[in-house]
From TrEMBL:
UniProt keyword terms in alphabetical order: Ammonia transport, Membrane, Signal, Transmembrane, Transmembrane helix, Transport
Transmembrane region(s): 75-95, 107-125, 172-194, 201-225, 245-275, 287-307, 319-339, 351-370, 376-395, 407-425, 462-485
Gene: amt
NCBIfam families: amt (TIGR00836)
Protein name: Ammonium transporter
Subcellular location: Cell membrane; Membrane
Source organism of the structure: Ideonella livida
Membrane-protein topology: Multi-pass membrane protein
Amino acid sequence: MKKFIASLALGFAALGLSGLSFAQDAASAPVAVTASAPAEAAAPAAAAAPAAEPASAAEAAAAPAPTPNKGDTSWMMVSTLLVILMTVPGLALFYGGLVRSKNMLSVLMQVMVTFSLIVVLWAVYGYSLAFTEGNAFIGGFDRLFLKGTWDNVAGTFANAATFSKGVVIPEIVFVAFQATFAGITGALIVGAFAERAKFSAVLLFMVLWFTFSYAPIAHMVWFWMGPDAYTGAEVVDAMNGKAGFIWQMGALDFAGGTVVHINAAVAGLVGAYMIGKRVGYGKEAMAPHSLTLTMVGASLLWVGWFGFNAGSALEANGFAALAFVNTLVATAAAVLSWSAGEALHKGKASMLGAASGAVAGLVAITPAAGNVGVGGALIIGLLAGFAGLWGVNGLKRLLGADDSLDVFGVHGVCGILGAVLTGVFNSPNLGGPSAVGDWVTVGMIAPDAYSIATQVWTQLKAVLITVVWSGLVSVVAFKIVDLVIGLRVPEDEEREGLDITSHGETAYNK
C-alpha cells in the first residue's frame, strides 16, 4: 500500500509540473465538448460544444455571442448535485446493506474513495481525453487541469453548447456534471468483487481502467463538434469526421447505457473472475446484513437518477422533462415486474427484489430516457424487471462467477436491454421523438424514413464495441495490479472482515 501511495504521489507531482507549464499558455481555442444525446440528437450523441465563432467581423457585429441562460445553468448544477447524491450516499448504502456486517465500511470506503479519486483524475486529464478534439477514439490535451475553461484574454468563462443552436452553458458546469458520471461508473464496479479485494488494488485498478476504458468510450460515444459547428452542408462531413467513433456510427445513448452501465458491468465481471470467489461462497450464508439500508440506498439512487437522466438534456427544456417522466414511469414499472416475477418464481415478493427492480429500471431507461416516448419507457421498464431477475438468478449460475452484488446481472443485462430497445422505441412510428437527421437545419428523421432494424443494428454494434473494449482493458488492468500489489486479501483477513483488517474500524459496536 505504501509503494502504491508513493508511486501515485510521484505521478501526480509529475502531472502537476507539466500542468504548471500548460497554465502559462494562453487559453486555447474553444474545444467541442459533449454529453449524452437527447432524442433529438442526430446520430447518437449529446454534445456540448462551444458556440461557433462568426466567420467575419460583420457577422460578429450582427450576431453577438450567445450567453448562458441562468435557468439552464441552475438546472445543470442541481443535476450535478443529484448525481453526487446517488453515488454518496445512495450507491454506497445500497451496496453496504447487501454485504455482511464485517465488510460494511470497506464497501462504503471503496465507493467514496473511488468516486473521489476519479473526480480528481477527471479534473487533471480525464475531461480533456473524453471531451476535446483528438481522433475517433480519444481526445487531446487541450483541457489538462481544465486549462481554458476560464479565458484570461476575454476575462470570462468559456461556454459549451447544448443540443440547441445558439444555446450554451458555462463549460465549467458541464465539466462538473460529467465528472460525477465518471465517478459513479468507477464506484459501480466495486460491487462485483466486494468483500475480498485489497483496497490498494481497487484504487490502482480504477486509475488504469478510468484512463484506458472510461475516457475513450465516453469520447467515442458522446464527443462531437456541437450543433453550432454545422453551419452548412459543405462542412457536415468534416464535422462528423471529428466526432467519436460510436457517435459517427449513429448510436443513441442519452445518459450512459454504454458509457456507464455496460462499461462498468463488464469490468466488474472480469474482476469477479480474476479475483476469484469469496471464501465459503456457495457453502456459507452470505445474506445481506441490512436490507433497510439497501432500501434507503435504492431510494436515494432513484431520486438522484433524475439528475443523471434529465440533466443529460443539458437544458431545462422539454427533453429534460421527457427524460424526467420516463425515469419515473420506467422505474416504477420495473419494481412491479421484478416483484411479480419473484412472486411467481419463489412464491413471495421481497424488499430486496423491489429495490433491485428499481435499479434495473433506472439502468434500462438511462440510454433511452430522452430518446423514447412514455409508452416505450413503460415497456422498457416492465421488461427490465424480468430481465434483471433473470440476470441475478439464471444468468449468474450460467456464468459461474461470484459477482457479489450482481453488477453484471443488473447493470450489464439491463444496460444492454435498454441500449437495444432505444433503437426500437426511438421510432416516431412507436411514439418516439426520432433523431436528428440533419444538424444544419436540425431536421428530424421522418416516420417513413426511420428504420428500426438499422437503428437496432447500430445499437448492437455500440454494445459490442463497449463490451470488447472494456473487457480487454479490464483484463490487462487487473493483471497489472495483480503483478504489482496483488488483487485480494489473505484468507484469514477475509474471514475476519475487511472493516477491521483493511481499515481498522467497525461499522457497528457490539
